[in-house]
């Protein structure tokens, strides 16, 4: 469902803003004793070899590691900069004060096709800890409607997956510098030593989009300007927020709640309100077929058309009210061309129409960009075209490096705009885990595969 701002009429769909607030930091029951929940102490260097190396322990890396567990693949090394499963995801949401996910209960990094605990099962098991609003959302999910998932529930569920699929004990804190495909193996070079693997799954997620250097002229980035994923400048007075997506909406809302006046620069003609961040059809097989089965130029066009910045509907009433009350000024259809230090420690943003917007500080939320393997793999192995890697559509392996595959945003030209979402990771994971497990069997590596019905990571 989509919409643009305007008077709220009797027929408009405006879900209650109360859905945006859920408690954070509740005490969830820990996973059963004996299961590891964190990095074992004293493990500095990853082992020199493994059947599979997973690069990145975000929701995508967690999904693929859990799925490989069900396939009977146990010799896995997960390498992550922060060393904690989904650490970057929760650091980002917490920095923004985000209390609920945008994706519904069906979208989760748990494993489908095996006996496992899904996110909705997990929430129902912990019914007694949920607020009345959260319980209603669980019922919505059970009835097949769109639902809102608390970040708190999602984090507890991710911890559950980590424990039940033995992910923590496979995870090492390491920065991966290079991924070098060789004959029958892949060498992964890290700041803590190399790991040689039969297969590598890249799950590095997305990096924030930086402002063009022309914004700063010849000077440095003025103090008082930060990006959305950096520690915020503690400030008062007027804040300027640049960007049109959910991240920007969280920043604007947070500043308004803190009693600040906000100027919001939105490049599009108007901000766009929508439940999910891509059209719901792209979460379904027929939507994915629209991307996978069409010529390259059409895929690019579809992607550009449907992958636009948007904000959850629930934000609209509070933002519209703040604008009407003059606490929020929205500069719609305006583009920043220059950012400089102003008088008295302020920040000045010059817009394309010549107008100047000044604030006590400014936060930039210009979106994120998929890591497609460039900078890790040799460029010839990535085979980048229009910013996308050359992937085998069935296995999501690099066409020119078949022992390396991807789960995450980089699969966009195969799975469509939902590739960057948790649901897209689920679809990619099923393909990649299956292909990797088959590859290991072909290699003659022992895989302790149990019949599907016998495998379970129960609650
Ligand atoms: C604020 C915010 C809210 C979002 N909310 C939702 C939502 O509600 N629903 C949804 O479906 N999607 C949401 N998304 C999109 C979301 O980013 C993805 O669904 C999810 O985080 C992607 O998981 P990932 O594992 O691909 O990437 P990440 O979560 O970014 O994890 C990648 C990991 O790989 C590590 N890494 C990268 N490169 C290296 C390297 N060279 N060496 C070692 N480690 C490395 C990173 O440090 C990170 O820990 C949100 C995104 C943001 C920014």
UniProtKB/TrEMBL annotation:
Domain of life: Bacteria
Positions of the FAD-dependent urate hydroxylase HpyO/Asp monooxygenase CreE-like FAD/NAD(P)-binding domain: 53-206
Region of interest (Disordered), ranges: 1-51
Protein name: FAD-dependent urate hydroxylase HpyO/Asp monooxygenase CreE-like FAD/NAD(P)-binding domain-containing protein
Protein species of origin: Amycolatopsis vastitatis
Lineage: Bacteria, Bacillati, Actinomycetota, Actinomycetes, Pseudonocardiales
């Amino acid at each position: 469902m989509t919409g643009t701002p305007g008077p709220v009429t009797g027929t408009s769909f405006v879900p209650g803003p109360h859905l945006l607030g859920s408690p954070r930091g509740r005490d969830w029951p820990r996973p059963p004793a004996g299961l590891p929940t964190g990095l074992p102490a004293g493990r500095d260097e990853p082992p020199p070899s493994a059947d599979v190396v997973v690069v990145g322990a975000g929701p995508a890396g967690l999904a693929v590691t859990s799925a490989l567990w069900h396939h009977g693949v146990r010799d896995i090394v997960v390498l992550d900069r922060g060393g904690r499963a989904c650490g970057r995801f929760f650091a980002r949401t917490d920095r923004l004060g985000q209390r609920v996910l945008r994706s519904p209960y069906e979208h989760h990094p748990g494993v489908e096709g095996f006996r496992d605990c899904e996110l909705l099962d997990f929430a129902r098991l912990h019914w007694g800890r949920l607020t009345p609003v959260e319980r209603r959302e669980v019922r919505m999910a059970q009835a097949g409607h769109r639902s809102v998932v608390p970040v708190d529930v999602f984090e507890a569920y991710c911890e559950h997956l980590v424990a039940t699929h033995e992910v923590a004990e496979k995870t090492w804190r390491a920065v991966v510098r290079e991924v070098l495909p060789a004959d029958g193996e892949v060498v992964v070079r890290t700041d803590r030593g190399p790991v040689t693997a039969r297969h590598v799954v890249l799950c590095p997620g997305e990096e924030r989009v930086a402002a063009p250097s022309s914004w700063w002229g010849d000077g440095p980035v003025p103090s008082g300007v930060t990006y959305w994923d950096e520690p915020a400048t503690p400030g008062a007075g007027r804040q300027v927020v640049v960007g049109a997506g959910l991240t920007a909406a969280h920043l604007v809302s947070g500043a308004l709640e803190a009693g600040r006046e906000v100027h919001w620069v939105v490049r599009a003609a108007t901000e766009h309100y929508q439940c999910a961040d891509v059209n719901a059809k792209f979460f379904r097989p027929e939507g994915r077929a629209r991307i996978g089965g069409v010529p390259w130029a059409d895929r690019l066009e579809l992607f550009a058309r449907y992958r636009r910045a948007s904000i959850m509907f629930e934000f609209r009433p509070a933002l519209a009210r703040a604008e009407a009350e003059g606490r929020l000024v929205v500069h719609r259809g305006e583009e920043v061309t220059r950012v400089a230090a102003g008088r008295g420690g302020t920040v000045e943003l010059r817009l394309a129409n010549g107008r100047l917007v000044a604030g006590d500080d400014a936060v930039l939320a210009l979106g994120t960009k998929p890591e497609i393997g460039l900078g890790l793999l040799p460029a010839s192995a990535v085979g980048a075209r229009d910013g996308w890697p050359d992937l085998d559509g069935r296995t999501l392996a690099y066409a020119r490096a078949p022992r390396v595959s991807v789960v995450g945003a980089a699969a966009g030209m195969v799975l469509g705009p939902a590739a960057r979402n948790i649901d897209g990771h689920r679809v990619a994971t099923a393909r990649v885990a299956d292909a990797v497990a088959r590859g290991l069997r072909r290699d003659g590596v022992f895989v302790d595969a149990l019949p599907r019905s016998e495998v379970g990571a129960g609650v």
